[in-house]
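[scheduler] slot 2 assigned
[scheduler] job type: sequence-to-structure, two independent chains
[scheduler] chain ordering preserved from manifest
[runner] begin chain α
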Amino acid sequence: MATPPDLSYLTALNLPSLNLLKTFSVVAKTLNLTHAAELLHITQGAVSRQITGLENTLGYPLFLRQARGLTLTPRGAQLLPPIQQALEQMGEAMKRVGSHPDTLRIKCPTCSMRWLLPRVIQLQNDRPELRIELTASIAHGVDFSTEHFDAAVVFGRAPDSPRRAHHLFDEILTPICTPDFFGKSAESTTIEDLAEKTLLHPTRDRRDWLLWLRESGVKGLPSAKSQHFDTLDLAINSALQGYGIAIGDLTLIEDDLQAKRVMAPFPLCVASGASYTLLYPDNPTPALQVAIDYLNEQARISRQKLSTLLSTSHRLVTSN
């Protein structure tokens, strides 16, 4: 016979009822019993009794009753934020599980969407039973203890938890532009041709362009014309429209290169030291394992294509 789980810790918590905490949150937001009663669809008297009952349970007042209305006591103000956060997290969890319990939620940096989105769509076409939602973010990290994601693609230095992390591909930087941007063959393009061209920067500090130029033996920027963007993807999209020349990651623009929407006119490519990594919590579900295996295989194919490109027409250096 199986041993029943030990739930004594729940009793030790001695928490008030969820209804009381919800009422407290609404009253604290409105600071008006009548308005709170309307939002909760109960009478004003019921709201007042619930707040009084909660204060009696806790042993201290939560509100000051004044002629002009309610105000939170110092203890009430201290208690409100964690209760609101807990109620929001419970609401999100119930909505998520109730709507599509099998949906996989993957967080990713905005720039990685160029590589990730078409592959996720292809996976869903091949496996219609899988539901995958991508959430793009300018944040380059994830905290599974507070963020409701099943997996995440993160950008930066390799994480310290290889047990549940898979390296996808390294960031390899080189200038990119439309095929007719320089108006001549790619083989004859030189750095001097960048003068008077608009340089598209994916960051305000211009570090990607400066890194590539430094490895090319050039100090400073060859052109005074520039535009700055908040993400690499925005800079690449501007280059695709012919507005300038951007620094791009060769793997992220893999499909654009193959379709000849863009070109990499200079043979020098620089490994920045950053990479894209797939992270996930322990014990992935079968559906998540399918997605992990698929993305790992797609990354292997992309790394092979990059290796072929570097061995035939480009050369790679590693940033110091």
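[runner] end chain α
[runner] begin chain β
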Amino acid sequence: MNNTAEGGRISAWGGRSRGLALALVSAALLSACSDSPEQMLASAKGYLSNNDTNAAVIQLKNALQEDGSLAEARFLLGRINLQQGDTAGAIKELQHAFDLGYARTEVVPLLARARVRAGEFDRVLADFADVKLDEDAAQGRLLGAVGDAHFGKANVQEAIRSYQQALTLRAADVEAGIGLARARLFSNDPTGAEEAIKAVVAHSPDNGDVLAALSDILLAQGKQEEALKALEEAVRLSPNQVGYHYALVSLLFRSGRYEEGVKHFEAMKKAAPSHPSTRYLQAFMDAREGRLAEARDLLTQVLRQAPNFLPAQLLAGSVLLQLNDQAQARNHLNTVLSRAPGQQLARTLLITSHLSSGEASRALELLQPLLETQPADARTLGLAGQVFLANGDLAKAEDYLERAAKAAPEDPRARLRLGAARLASGDAEGALADFESASTMDDSAIQADLALVAAYLRRGDTEKALEAQAELERKQPQNPLVYNLRGGVMQARQDIPAARAAFEKALSLNADFLAAAVNLARLDLGERKTEEALARIRAIADRNEKNAEARLALADLQVATGAAPADVLATLERAEAAAPGTMAPALAIIQHHLRNREFPKALAAAQKLSAANPNDVRAVEALARAQLAANETQQGIASLNRLATLRPQSAVPLIMVADVHRGAKDNAAAEQALRRALAVQPDSIDAQQRLAGLMLERGAREDALKVAKAVQKQHAENPAGYVLEAEIESAGNRWAEAASAYRQALERRSGGDVAARLHSALMRAERKGEADKFAADWLQRQPEDLVMRGYLAERALSETRYADAVDGFEVMRKISPDNPMVLNNLAWAANQVKDPKALEYAERALSLAPDNAAILDTLGVIQIDHGQADKGLANLQRAVSLAPDLAQLRLSLARSYAKLGRKDDARKELDMLMPKLQENTALHKEAIELLNSL
């Protein structure tokens, strides 16, 4: 077993004496610079025989500088690199040795092992799975590496087969024996795992790694006493091996045998008093006993000694969260996840932190890897339900909260969270009783009341939500979260003065409570008080230069208010300086450059982030997106494949690969990627939807329908399979069949988007009366459905029923008064009927979404119609600059130039536009007609 703490080992040989020794060695080597490459190689081998690795490396590099074709020098340097943990260097040199024809029995096993350590499992399997070597010992070592590659891809049975073959050839192979034991444990065969590891113990009884692996396997079977004895034996055999002490004390602590753990810890302190692992365990004990400041200070020392010691990073994150130092806590937790994406506690703490700050989308992003591991514990399931609830995904929230309740039926918090989801999705009667009983069971907690407020809000019952919030105030009158929530309730009641008062109360309790400040800033923007909004967030950021979250919130606000890109970047760079090494600011900078189409800058920033965090899925995904935006397609695909390796149980990276291939018109490669995705996740709806689309494109309609039926079978209560069937039928103009499938989707809780598609299918099937009745019935049941109302209003626009369109968009504005796209569409329709309010609507829409190209286009056209030519053209030109590939915007600008008599400018825009238009499309015909009129 690898000792985690060893990454922080401090060499006892340091200071001036080491520097002098190295200088003398270097001088001796330089004096021999006239030797031939072969002599330098022989000298290096001599140094290696005396265990002088540093001198050997110098000689090997000198030899290769003179003659790069020395295969043995390449091999020896690669082997040293692998031993020293330089995986990239090992791969480079060993591959060179292989290419130069070095003995396969020597180089192939090591090259395979190096690629395994680099996580290149697919490459190992592709290059080495079928390789046969002449010597049994070499073949055994190779099969052990192949087994590790299979294990890395969770191909457990294949891994076991490879390990068994390796042990047949080399019965005493420790690595293969440990690998076989761990693979059997992973495949839920603890008895077989114990048999395998005991076989290794039989021939290597004094190997500490074997005993540590034995301890892990015994522990998995609940044999705690035997596991402890195995570790105690490892400590007895190697009393100076800190890693075995550390594992033993940690196991005792985890087992609740705290006093016994402290006793063993004293022995560990005698063996290595200043070792990072020793100091870490002392910090753990301090934190456990409430000495948080002492724990923080000790952890600072530990991380100065061993910055890659992840347990200390994790504990530091937990301690700093308790000390309310959110920025530094997140810094440590993000460091853990960048190196160990599967560390559940770090991820859970981060998710909780972001949820408490109202950053629901970030919490959801962090949650996804947890869901891909199919967690069964109630805490994770409940947390997932809360995240989906915060993001407004009621169906998934109900699913996860129900599973949480089943996993912990006696947990009142699980019951109350389930009630929240059920109430939000319409099952009010049964849910409220659960909430009220949960609240009664634990009067000191506020989770039940929070769930009640959220559920009533989603139900639209703001009166009851306010009553539940008042109960929160009674329980925790000094909690700013309570008043921030009250502000949200008052906003839902459209009582803006009361909402503002509640948010200000939250800030009076904690001047740095960011969520309340952001909410107040949004109210300021709604009242066109841009400077006041910016000042609120800037004040929090300026009070604490380490508050990266405040800087990020300020940058978001700057973007929303149309600040210059340079100013936004300056804010993001200050956020990065506030929390150096963290992911969020770096990702925001990459997104900033992408948004501003500064693709080389985005790529450079993404490459830097990925180099610093090569195993962090967010960094790798950001690199892939930047590479694709910069037209480095093959590199982007390579990064996505790397992402797939990091997330072996997720279909998402492979779906992204498929999307890239499809965008490049390589449908065969796209289909191959989708089938790989489905091999990973057979019930992936996204992958199956795309696969059906590819089948339709090549005319395989029946195959596409089989995919839709499979989705329906896998997800019987999900409307997605029926929507997919309807889309397939629609593609063949089988409108009656499409309408039938859409109706089945609606029976499974589909929303307004499916309702709109059903209406369209009925209209195309020439069943207008049925379509009109369906729409009327739907809106009577769902009067606030903006999707269906928007569809009907857009349909009225396309049919030049402008008065009906105005009426439709006006109803939508009353439902959602600050929705910029509703205001945009209302402005366009109102302008068609010469309503003077059109300009006011468009200006309001732009104030809410200052960088939206469609809104800029609408406002520009209306301004020109109202005689404001200069303003109108400026907005139209900015719209084109924000979305240069959107043909409709450039045609709109050309049409406006023509209307103002600027024919040359109109021709110039059309000249740029025409090559991009497909012939015989509506836009192409409009452009030709305009060109002919000039």
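[runner] end chain β
[qc] chain β: The CA atoms of residues 372 and 650 lie 6 Å apart.
[scheduler] slot 2 released
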